[in-house]
Write a structure and sequence with these properties.
This protein is mainly alpha-helical and about 220 residues long. It is built from 11 helices and 6 strands. It has helices at about 20-25, 30-40, 45-55, 60-75, 80-95, 100-115, 120-125, 180-185, 185-195, 200-210, 220-224, and strands spanning about 1-5, 5-10, 15, 140-145, 150-155, 210-215. The structure holds zinc ion.
């Protein structure tokens, strides 16, 4: 796809990347393009796409990969918009889990199998607060990093700055490791590209390899 420092807004007007007008609609413009292609009346397909993207947001890479493949195969006209998510799913699924990953999955399995005992547990602990008072509950949830495929602590995709080490994978160190439709679609990636939101060169090289990018990433830096 041809990518430049300009983009087309939902209302058809032209916008400039990596500023507030880009940020506000970066997660919805690709959805608008999909709706324009498949048609608003195609409720069944739009629902399938929405369910599939929800799986992606939940870091359910297996589930998302499988439904993305089906949707892309049946609807090649929207393949370009969905491929960024599928590429990430394939990357994660091709990564071999290590001992720590397997241990965490065992822990999750135990939690799920605990259901039968939870009534008595809740009764015995009815006066306690449901979550530890120190620290955030999200710190104890792990998801597979969209880059290296290993489990890392969940950090909201909109919090912290990766270049200040505030939103990075605990294993590979790359910025914004949690999958999210908002940032992983083509416009979201272009925003990060022109904004320079991440520090690792792999991101910029990958982006340039995948898309026909002009002007390059230093466009806005040169302008300042
Ligand atoms: Zn990682």
């Amino acid at each position: 796809m041809k990518i430049s420092h300009k983009f087309i807004n939902i209302d058809g007007s032209e916008g400039t990347r990596s500023n507030s007008e880009d940020f506000g609609t970066v997660g919805s413009r690709f959805l608008k393009r999909i709706v324009d292609i498949v048609g608003e009346d195609n409720k069944k397909l739009l629902e399938e796409i929405s369910d599939c993207l929800n799986k992606y947001n939940q870091a359910n890479y297996e589930g998302a990969d499988s439904c993305l493949s089906q949707i892309i195969k049946a609807n090649p006209s929207i393949a370009e918009e969905l491929q960024p998510f599928q590429e990430i799913c394939s990357r994660v699924l091709s990564c071999e889990k290590n001992d720590a990953d397997r241990l965490y999955e065992k822990y999750l399995e135990d939690l799920r199998n605990w259901k039968g005992k939870s009534f008595i547990y809740k009764l015995l602990n009815r006066n306690k607060k449901p979550y530890p008072q120190t620290g955030l509950i999200e710190n104890s949830i792990k998801v597979r990093c969209k880059y290296c495929g290993h489990y890392t602590s969940y950090i909201g995709p909109y919090t912290g700055f990766a270049y200040m080490d505030g939103n990075n994978c605990e294993i590979c160190g790359r910025g914004y490791p949690v999958p999210t439709v908002y940032w992983d679609n083509i416009d979201g990636q272009a925003y990060i590209y022109y904004r320079g939101s991440v520090t690792e060169d792999e991101f910029y090289n990958d982006f340039e390899k995948k898309h026909d990018v002009s002007p390059g990433r230093d466009y806005f830096m040169k302008k300042k």
